[in-house]
Amino acid sequence: MQMIGFAVQLSFVFLAVSKAEAGTERRAAIIISSITDDDFDNDIELRKREVPEPEAQIQTTTLLFNLSKNADDVRFLLYNKRNLGVSQELRYNDTESFKKSSFNPQEKTVFLIHGFWTNSSSPMPTTLKKAFLEASVPFNLIVVDWGLLSKPEPPKVLYAPVAYSMVVKRSIPIVYNRIADFIRFMRASNYTSLKKLKIIGHSLGAHVAGGVGRTVASFPESKGRKLARVTGLDPAGPLFQKLPVGQKITKDDAEFVDIYHTAAGTLGISAFTDGHVNFIPNGGHHQPGCVDPTNPVLGEAEFGSCSHNFVTKIYAASITRSFLACECDPELAIKNECPVNCNVTVLAGEPCPASTRGQYYFETT
Ligand SMILES: *[C@@H]1O[C@H](CO)[C@@H](O)[C@H](O)[C@H]1NC(C)=O
Ligand SMILES: *[C@@H]1O[C@H](CO)[C@@H](O)[C@H](O)[C@H]1NC(C)=O
Ligand SMILES: *[C@@H]1O[C@H](CO)[C@@H](O)[C@H](O)[C@H]1NC(C)=O
Ligand SMILES: *[C@@H]1O[C@H](CO)[C@@H](O)[C@H](O)[C@H]1NC(C)=O
Ligand SMILES: *[C@@H]1O[C@H](CO)[C@@H](O)[C@H](O)[C@H]1NC(C)=O
């Protein structure tokens, strides 16, 4: 059954989150394999699920946690050079919150979307925020905080596998619909336009970003036009590997979709074809200074979490310095065997031109 495959993958998400104790991997697999689609209609029962301990079958552990399903818990925190260091909260359908803030409708607006089990204080938003504020071009940077829908309360690692599937199936649509509605409100208030919008998401946040793009394009006032750019930073793999277009980030989601792969096949999605352009830094699987995922002991336990987070550093660096990438067959790229004499080069990351197509390789330290 398909769920068993999910179970194995999710147990690794669990491990990556927890650096876990012995036995937790099996327990995670048992938890996930016991979830059915019907469970998602019965939130309370899912959260109260009793889980047999693998070691001592007599005992059970009752999961009981809160994961918000309230769209109002999705928060929008504005940063720009004018309010440097101190966020200003922008509120959906509240023009006063915009007028009181340092938001500038003339400037482009960039949304940053974090992933699973994190919030706006996590490395992805903080690293990218710092880089954007150092950039010469002014932006309205909006950090989306969906922490209450991404991390259960209490945040015990034992809940991570169940929480991951709940976040994928339930939270992600709530979050991308709210961000899309927020953009709809911004456009109606003349605070932005499709051409001025860019969404950057990491891991599950990349799939949220794709959903925002699709939803905004589906609004009647968009008349089929899409927002300018969606950037996927190592889009999450578990539960997404086999999903079709429309249920994960793809090139259909914006005028330009650029995707960066750093932990393909572990925590990251393994196809190198979902974006208009797919970047394969350092071979796309295993980043410098991180454990090799094929290592039978350390690699399994770590399951790519270091490489998965490395993408944030690469993208942040691209805002202030140049990475020249070389068009290359992914078969060669994954082996770090792209020809040195490269016929087609582009700038990777933030300055990547929207006309770029294909698959590109570059190296970093
Ligand atoms: C869940 O949230 C409700 C309302 O805030 C609270 O009463 C309850 O104790 C919480 N449950 C857990 C397990 O934290
Ligand atoms: C936000 O404003 C729109 C347009 O006025 C309205 O249709 C929608 O119901 C409002 N949503 C909320 C949650 O207030
Ligand atoms: C993010 O989560 C951390 C750890 O749970 C917490 O200390 C911090 O206050 C949270 N940040 C926000 C903005 O909620
Ligand atoms: C937005 O701009 C359009 C065109 O200039 C104008 O017709 C409309 O009234 C403006 N809307 C708001 C809410 O200011
Ligand atoms: C670069 O272009 C030349 C001439 O068109 C071609 O012979 C060569 O194979 C190309 N190299 C690569 C790496 O694609």
List its traits:
11 helices, disordered N terminus, two-stranded antiparallel sheet, 13 strands, 365 residues, alpha/beta, binds 2-acetamido-2-deoxy-beta-D-glucopyranose, eleven-stranded mixed β-sheet, globular, Rossmann fold
Brief write-up:
This protein is α/β, with parallel strands linked by helices. Helices cover 33% and strands 16% of the residues.
Number of domains: 2
Query: In percent, how much strand structure appears in the residues?
Result: 15-25%
Distance between the termini: 41 Å
Shape: globular
List low-pLDDT spans: 1-24
Q: N-to-C SSE series?
A: HHHEEEEHEHEHHEHEEEHHEHEE
Give the radius of gyration: 20 Å
CATH fold-level assignment of the largest domain? Rossmann fold
Structural class: alpha/beta
| CATH class membership of the largest domain | Alpha Beta
Going by CATH, what is the homologous superfamily of the largest domain? Alpha/Beta hydrolase fold, catalytic domain
What is the chains' assembly state?
Answer: single chain
Number of strands: 13
What is the count of DSSP helices, taking H or I runs of 4+ residues? Answer: 11
Summarize the main sheet.
11 strands, mixed
Which strands sit side by side, in order, in the main sheet?
A: 4-3-6-5-7-8-9-10-13-11-12
Helix content: 25-40%
Reported CATH architecture of the largest domain: 3-Layer(aba) Sandwich
Tell me which ligands are bound: 2-acetamido-2-deoxy-beta-D-glucopyranose
pLDDT averaged over residues: 86
Organism: Orchesella cincta
Keywords: Secreted, Signal
GO molecular function, one term: serine hydrolase activity
Pfam families: Lipase
